[in-house]
Amino acid sequence: MTGEGTNERKPVLAVTLGDPVGIGPEITAAVLAEAESAGLARGLAVGDAPVLRRAVDVLGLDVEVNAISSVADATFTPGILDVLDLGIVTMDLPWGKVDPAAGRASVEAIEVATRAALAGEVDAVVTSPINKEAIWAAGSKHLGHTEMLGELTGSDRFNTMFWVRGLRIFFATRHMSLRAALDAMTVDNIEHAIREAYTALRVFGTDEPRLAVAALNPHGGENGKFGDEEITAIRPAVQRALADELNVFGPVPADSVFHQGLQGRYDGVLSLYHDQGHIASKTVDFDGTVSVTVGLPILRTSVDHGTAFDIAGTGTASAGTMRAAFRAAAELAPYAPRLREAYPPAR
Q1: Of 177, 127, 155, residue with least CA distance to 17
Q2: HSE (side-chain half, CA atoms, 13 Å) at 164
Q3: CATH fold of 1-158+295-347, please?
Q4: Which of 37, 41, 204, 270 has its CA 20 to 30 A from that of 216?
Q5: Is 3.30.465.60 the CATH number for 159-288?
Q6: What digits encode the pLDDT tens for the residues 208-265?
């Protein structure tokens, strides 16, 4: 990897610009231009150089954009923002409007960054937000980043881990309706989610993890009075894990389990459906919640918000979540080799 002296020992992070007409280019430019970020890792943008230059102009940053064609060409020099130039968006697109060209650029940036990570050219990928309607207009069939990364790496074990104030939150179900999520809460599915979460905790450095499984119903169901999922599915799944000497607790009522985790009682919490874990983490620290994709042979962190089309191009978007995602990738980069061992690429 490019660099000299102490700079050479810093991890290299590929940061995608996300949707070119959303806030991704702005928050990427803001974070890559910061001296604090340069002290943590060597970051380079992945996207279109004209898009990054427009974001720099919007923010009034005193930096130069350096278009490169390979990671080896990066300078990693203060005052210069290196960008792996895709050559897709060559002219200004209207801010905040769904555009197939923007969708194509979003997808291509993810593909380029992922290939670089698989080849060992970068230590991690940090992703800016994409617009699902735009990527679908460009022909993508994926629901979002995570599914796309699963296909690119040949992984079928991909899942999401939120990292907020030291607590890791996992999800038994993800992008589906609440009704569908309830139907998916079987003993086998929950047991599988427990084991995957437990593996991820170990991969990221917790040798003897303590994993709590959230309950579904109020007060944990009150022995079936408020619902029986705890009895028919969740508790049996926990008991299977306990039989294999996994340090798992639950079901723990969801109105207290996340607080207990933040207090240090647990290293991780398994949320049963999308909003259960999202609401808990984002209420505690919206800007500090980082999304880490687990089950892949590469390290990927991400902001956990959308493209914010309503404020794109105004220079007012907070870069806090991107800053947190960049910092998390730098901190987790030493565990990247473990990911390849635990989740070897299918091809």
Answers
A1: 127
A2: 28
A3: Isopropylmalate Dehydrogenase (3.40.718)
A4: 204
A5: no
A6: 999 999 999 999 888 889 999 999 999 999 999 999 999 999 999 999 999 999 999 9
